[in-house]
Amino acid sequence: MRIAITGANGLLGGEAVAQAAVDHEVLALGRGPCRLPAGRYAWASADLADGRSLEAALLAFRPEAVLHAGAATDVDGCEREPAMAWRTNVGGTEQAARACAALGARLVAVSTDYVFDGEAGPYAEEDLPNPRGVYARTKRCGEEAALLLDPGCAVARVAVVYGGTPGARPTFASQVVEKLSRGEPVKAFSDQLVSTTLASSGAARCLELLLETRYAGVLHLSDATVVDRVEFARRVAARFGLSGQIIPVKTAEVKLPAPRPLRGGLKVDRAAALLRHRPLTLDQALDLFHAEWMTRSAG
Ligand SMILES: NC(=O)c1ccc[n+]([C@@H]2O[C@H](COP(=O)([O-])OP(=O)(O)OC[C@H]3O[C@@H](n4cnc5c(N)ncnc54)[C@H](OP(=O)(O)O)[C@@H]3O)[C@@H](O)[C@H]2O)c1
To answer: Which residues make Cβ contacts (< 8 Å) with residue 3, sequence separation at least 6?
Structure first.
């Protein structure tokens, strides 16, 4: 199958390229040069924010399926630059949806638990979004753009993506490992309840949703366990055999430009019933994260 994957230099997109390229013809799309390990895929640079280059790249490649994982994901950066966030997260998704509708290609657009306000999580697919902050609002508008312009598409919501993807940005979990390994303390929010998503595990579910189902509408695709961030950090540390200081911090004690949902998290029962790649428990995901980390550190 011909598959295009956006955000290919990112955590989720990079994992999806590696997995999809095993059996499919893959066009990896990112901003500027490729930072992925070499593999059986083609690369094209397309700026999601410029209004046309993603759509043009997709129309030229003529994919049968598109995983749209590219986005402006720096929540505080989006708060400072709302026009950039809008062009990237709404405009980029609009381009992907327009191209897929024109080509008759299957689209999965990746979104976020931040579409919820975090007053009463964990949330199911039918719960009403109430996004707070620029990142959250642009991602919600991106969901609407995808669902409106390409009604057969699926919107896959994930949360707190982490992994050891080569070339991708550091994550909370990778920083826990690196800081504790160096003997440095780690600060973690004690009042943010979240779902988490190991990038390779989330990518596998996104690809199954894309390639093996015709599911249309919103689906929650994070891993299964809902934890606060202190507990998440402790479980990461325990899995890596690291001791050291994890300092609980309240969200209100830190001046952050963008609001954070406090009681968040995603219910994933629907994905568990639909997909072979079931959402993992945190322990299962951390076993995999540890194995990936060790393999990549050795290589
Ligand atoms: N990260 C999380 O915790 C999280 C949580 C919930 C939902 N999500 C969603 O999951 C999806 C995948 O995110 P991720 O975790 O893989 O994030 P990521 O690692 O930040 O990857 C996003 C990718 O999008 C690319 N990008 C940003 N602006 C672009 C532009 N103007 N043109 C082209 N590419 C651009 C980035 O390029 P560069 O590498 O060049 O910056 C990056 O490679 C996104 O839809 C995100 O909103 C993420």
So the answer is: 20, 24, 25, 26, 27, 63, 64, 65, 66, 67, 210, 211
**Residue 222 alpha carbon, nearest atom of ligand 1:** 6
Q: Residue with the nearest Cα to atom 42 of ligand 1?
A: 10
Given a contact cutoff of 8 angstroms between Cβ atoms, the answer to whether 34 and 46 are in contact is no
Distance 164 CA to ligand 1 centre (A): 15
Q: How far is the CA of 134 from the centre of ligand 1 (A)?
A: 15
Minimal-distance CA residue to ligand 1 atom 12: 69
Please give the Cα distance from 140 to 299 (Å, whole number): 39
C-alpha 49/C-alpha 47 separation (Å) is 5
Q: Which of 41, 114, 123, 135 is catalytic?
A: 135
pLDDT by residue for the chain (299 residues), tens only, comes to 999 999 999 999 999 999 999 999 999 999 999 999 999 999 999 999 998 999 999 999 999 999 999 999 999 999 999 999 999 999 999 999 999 999 999 999 999 999 999 999 999 999 999 999 999 999 999 999 999 999 999 999 999 999 976 666 899 999 999 999 999 999 999 999 999 999 999 999 999 999 999 999 999 999 999 999 999 999 999 999 999 999 999 999 999 999 999 999 999 999 999 999 999 999 999 999 999 998 888 76
Cβ proximity of 119 and 134 under 8 Å: no
| 114 is annotated as an active-site residue | no
105 and 99 Cβ atoms separated by less than 8 Å: yes
Mention every residue, 6+ apart, whose C-beta is less than 8 A from residue 124: 220, 267, 269, 270
